[in-house]
Amino acid sequence: MLAVLAVLHVLISIALIVLILMHSGRDTGFGGMGFTPASQGGTHIVERNLTRLTVVVGLLFLANTIALFHALK
After folding, report:
1. Residue-level pLDDT, tens digit, the chain, 73 residues
2. Considering only CA atoms, which of 15, 40, 19 is closest in space to residue 30?
3. With a threshold of 0.85, does the pTM exceed it?
């Protein structure tokens, strides 16, 4: 069980890092490439979905961290 949680933790960590790096401050990162014109402003649907996915993966990371803590205790 501990090994499964540890491997899962590494995979979730990598996914979280990739998702965070995809975010952009002003449509300059991977998340904003070609989806929103600079003059349009606001948040495009792709950015909102990327944010939602990042939050979900972050919550999975939190839950897995707590599970690892209890497994090691």
Report:
1. 999 999 999 999 999 999 999 987 665 556 555 555 554 555 688 888 999 999 999 999 999 999 999 999 8
2. 19
3. no
Long-range contacts of 53-59 (CB under 8 A, 24+ apart): 53/19, 54/16, 54/19, 54/20, 54/23, 57/12, 57/15, 57/16, 57/19, 58/16
Question: What's the rounded Cα separation, in Å, for the pair 48 and 24?
Answer: 12
DSSP the chain: -HHHHHHHHHHHHHHHHHHHHH--SSS-SGGGTTTS-TTT-S--HHHHHHHHHHHHHHHHHHHHHHHHHHHH-
